[in-house]
UniProtKB/TrEMBL annotation, chain B:
InterPro entries: Acyl-CoA_DH_CS, Acyl-CoA_Oxase/DH_mid-dom, Acyl-CoA_Oxase/DH_mid-dom_sf, AcylCo_DH-like_C, AcylCo_DH/oxidase_C, AcylCoA_DH/ox_N, AcylCoA_DH/ox_N_sf, AcylCoA_DH/oxidase_NM_dom_sf. Keywords: FAD, Flavoprotein, Oxidoreductase. Belongs to the acyl-CoA dehydrogenase family. This is Acyl-CoA dehydrogenase family protein. It comes from Sphingopyxis jiangsuensis. Residues 17-125 form the Acyl-CoA dehydrogenase/oxidase N-terminal domain. It comes from the Bacteria. The keyword Flavoprotein applies.
Length: 239, 379
């Protein structure tokens, strides 16, 4: 990550901590609505990679606040596809947080005389969950790179947005299930914080295109390209 | 949780030209064999093709030119490998020598070993196999018992290796052996590079459930190999093997083994597929695209000189699940009989039968998940 993005994330962390108590006002005051606005229009001139990094933090710290709408307001025209793309960043953050909480829990909670994390069954589930989180992070980063290469073009990035949102949707099912399973009853309580990320994950899976929507769209597009066309298009875009 | 750090996949040179040249070369030189041979093609043995590929400069690409290699960047090799696999090229003969043995000899081998073996590997003429598993050491690799005792004449090797892919056509085996008497677990192990025509070696085929002869068992009966067969440091075999496995686990072969089936599915669906088929194609596309990003990032991390042990394991775990589930998901949707003779039906049958091995070879799913769990701080 660039030094500028590191600083942006440090600011976002501090602002989101405030926003967790006070609502959207500190986020607006800190100028996050100008993140995607070009510098020559008095914005911050951030790219989608920056947005993704900030949304990942939002998904971790303030999943319910709706900061994504504020940040997308910096686009001349925010489409449903842009909203889907932003949601992928939020989902990556929330999934990372669900994994963090799960690891902490199984390393501290003792049963049968040892931490839950020492049981192979638990280790295997968490490994599968960690793979899903990594997949969503990779998808989000690659999608962001495409959006940045196309001046935030939702149509030009249509393939990547569809693939990333679909992949994130599918991961959400695995991640919420494993996180709750390894937490046991405590994770099902109002008091414990796991639901602060798992309920938003459930909601975001339906938001801005559920699995069937994006899979159908992507599938028809790929069928139209043919197998060779798919490979050529995928390899022409990156690497 | 800190996110998966994505490494930029940024090969030097003109990647577009590299792809275009290789595609043009393949259209002229790739044998127009049966479609089933194009599936799981890194297990497909064709020495003529390997020699031609070597002559064209697509094998040993990352080896230095003084050893007959191409002196290219590892990510340029990545581009070539994914093109070969997507085309279903029969790369099985030289596959292991190119992917693992060559780089390992370059990194740990003596100057004599480099000069002796690397040029043949780069020509696509010298083939290698990996001697890790034994009857008593499968997932538990540290239980290796094959021994090598140092004598005045050289190493005396006794023991047995099993599940050795390609031993029957390979020239050398890179074997993990116990060189320190009385040592246990991962201490006291070393790697020996042994010519397979050395007296005392017996290779027997093991036919797999698909009817193919890919793997073998190898018996070492008081086999005398020269002192110079030791690769790297005596007693450091475990560390060297572990590094080698990162090369084995993260490449594009981990999500392209079933690509021929995916391609046949897309082409059979035509431009206007029914909703269920479109959905399946969409899901598989999203998964493949994501895996490719993970795999490229892991390759870039490896190329940057960092150790991507956990990332490589994640690529293998997700990749194996993807390519193993694909034939099942296709079977659930596509209406074709088991004995149909269409390309799609024959590919489906072949991959349903081959796919149980995908999450066994190169480390079982359970072992791989254990490595990931250790990376998460659970072990």
């Amino acid at each position: 990550m660039s030094a500028v993005r590191d600083m942006l994330c440090d600011t976002a962390r501090a602002v989101f901590a405030e926003a967790a108590c006070e609502g959207l006002a500190p986020v607006e005051a800190a100028g996050f609505g100008l993140l995607l606005v070009p510098e020559n229009e008095d914005g911050l001139g951030g790219d989608w990679g920056d947005l993704n990094a900030v949304l990942r933090l939002a998904g971790t710290l303030v999943p319910d606040l709706g900061v994504e709408e504020l940040m997308l307001s910096g686009l001349p025209e925010a489409s449903e596809a842009h909203r889907a793309a932003a949601t992928v960043g939020l989902m990556a953050g929330a999934m990372g947080q669900a994994l963090t909480l799960s690891i902490e829990h199984v390393n501290t909670r003792q049963q049968f005389g040892r931490p839950l994390g020492k049981f192979q069954a638990v280790q295997q589930s968490l490994a599968a969950m960690a793979c899903e989180v990594a997949a969503v992070d990779a998808a989000a980063a690659a999608m962001a790179a495409r959006l940045d290469a196309t001046a935030f073009g939702a149509a030009a990035s249509g393939f990547e947005i569809a693939a990333a949102k679909l992949r994130a949707n599918r991961a959400a099912g695995v991640v919420t299930a494993v996180a709750h399973q390894v937490h046991g009853a405590i994770g099902f309580t109002r008091e414990y914080e796991l639901h602060r990320v798992t309920i938003p994950l459930m909601r975001w899976r339906s938001a801005h295109g559920n699995d069937a929507y994006w899979a159908g769209l992507l599938g028809r597009r790929v069928a139209d390209m043919g197998a060779r066309g798919l490979w050529e298009s995928m390899t022409a875009r990156a690497g | 949780m800190q996110g998966f750090t994505l490494f930029d996949f940024d090969p030097p040179g003109d990647t577009i030209a590299l792809r275009a040249d290789l595609r043009a070369w393949l259209s002229e030189h790739q044998p127009q064999g049966d479609v089933v041979r194009r599936a799981n093609c890194w297990a497909s043995f064709d020495p003529d093709f390997s020699t031609a590929l070597g002559k064209a400069g697509y094998i040993g690409m990352t080896l230095p030119e003084r050893y007959g290699g191409g002196g290219r960047h590892p990510l340029e090799r990545y581009v070539v490998i994914e093109e070969l696999l997507a085309a279903g090229a029969p790369v099985g003969a030289h596959w292991i020598a190119d992917r693992q043995t060559g780089p390992l000899i370059l990194r740990y081998g003596s100057e004599e070993q480099r000069e002796l073996y690397l040029p043949g590997i780069a020509r696509g003429e010298l083939y290698a196999c990996i001697g890790l598993s034994e009857p008593g050491a499968g997932s538990d690799l540290a239980a290796v018992r094959t021994s090598a005792r140092e004598t005045a004449d050289g190493w005396r090797v006794n023991g047995q290796k099993i599940w050795t892919t390609g031993a029957h056509f390979s020239h050398v085996i890179l074997a993990l052996v116990r060189t320190e008497e009385g040592s246990e677990r991962n201490a006291g192990l070393s790697q020996l590079l042994i010519d397979l025509d050395t007296p005392g070696i017996t290779i027997r085929p093991i036919v797999d459930m698909a009817g193919n002869h890919d793997f073998n068992e190898i018996f070492f009966d008081d086999v005398l190999v020269p002192h110079s067969a030791l690769v790297g440091e005596r007693g450091q075999g475990w560390r060297q093997v572990t590094a080698e496995l990162a090369l084995e686990r993260s490449g594009p072969e981990r999500y392209l083994s079933s690509h021929a089936l995916f391609a046949a599915l897309i082409d059979a669906a035509g431009p206007d597929p029914d909703p269920a088929l479109a959905t399946l194609i969409g899901e598989l596309t999203a998964e493949m695209w994501t895996l490719r990003q993970l795999s490229m990032s892991t390759a870039a991390k490896l190329a940057a000189g960092e150790d991507p042990m956990v990332e490589a394991s994640m690529v293998k775990e997700l990749g194996n699940a993807f390519e193993q589930d694909m034939p099942r998901r296709v079977q659930a949707i596509v209406d074709c009989g088991w004995d149909d003779e269409s390309d799609l039906a024959r590919l489906l049958r072949a991959l349903l039968i081959a796919s149980p091995s995908f999450s066994l070879r190169g480390g079982t799913r359970e072992v791989i998940r254990g490595i990931i769990a250790r990376g998460l701080g659970l072990r």
